[in-house]
Amino acid sequence: MNKALRKAVIAGNWKMNKTRPEAKELIEAMKPLVADAGCEVVICVPYTNLETALSLTEGTNIKVGAENCHFEKSGAFTGEISADMLTEMGVEYVIIGHSERRQYFGETDETVNKRTKAALAAGLKPIVCVGELLWERECNITEEVVGRQIKLDFFDVSAEDMKKCVIAYEPVWAIGTGKTATTEQAEEVCAFIREKLAALYGKEVADAVSIQYGGSMNAGNAAELLAKENIDGGLIGGASLKAPDFATIVKAAG
Ligand code: 13P
After folding, report:
1. 87, 137, 229, 246 - which has most CB atoms within 10 Å?
2. 73-88, pLDDT tens digit by residue?
3. Ligand 1 probe mutation, 16, 94, 216, most atoms within 8 A of CB
4. How far apart are CA 176 and CA 208, in angstroms?
5. What is the pTM of this model?
6. In a domain, 201, yes or no
């Protein structure tokens, strides 16, 4: 397995934060700090900030993503946003299956799979989130849980499309808790995910897919996590809301 075969992707997940003026302030502060990044820099922002983010990042190295999309193309789905609506705007990435969506909004592996396929069909790059609950880790079934998520979330996704996906390993117990997985724990699961991909799609695809770690990644611990063979980037919550912290993580990715 060769880390040089894939691009590091550092993505901010702003979650339900930032009004438009606040978003403008953060993006303006971030732009000069990440301008010489060696990795892919993405900010995934609330729908209401997409237009602001797209216009402020035009001509820069910052890519814009959404935090979710629906699986149907259009229709009577009040409150939802389709993948086509996002691509039409110029959005490139979309987070799918974040644990907060699974936990609070009833998302299942089946809907994550449908959303992933809809995103790919629309030309978006999905950042698909997987990860175990604390209870599942304590019961020693982390690999079972994550393996099942990989199998179901990417069911019926072709090898060609798989290469366009990013996988974010986010242990649910490490999200927003200040509790980071140890570098060994994170690397172990990311390596397992790559093995699983190799079994499903072959080594070439497994080598090409960027696997991020997410869960209290911050300016202090990013370099150590990102140095690991199978950790190709990060999905950053809290620390992505502070321009200097986010920039430090981007620098750590090379
Ligand atoms: P925190 O970095 O705030 O723990 O959030 C991680 C996350 O959920 C990113 O999607």
Report:
1. 246
2. 999 999 999 999 999 9
3. 216
4. 29
5. 0.97
6. yes
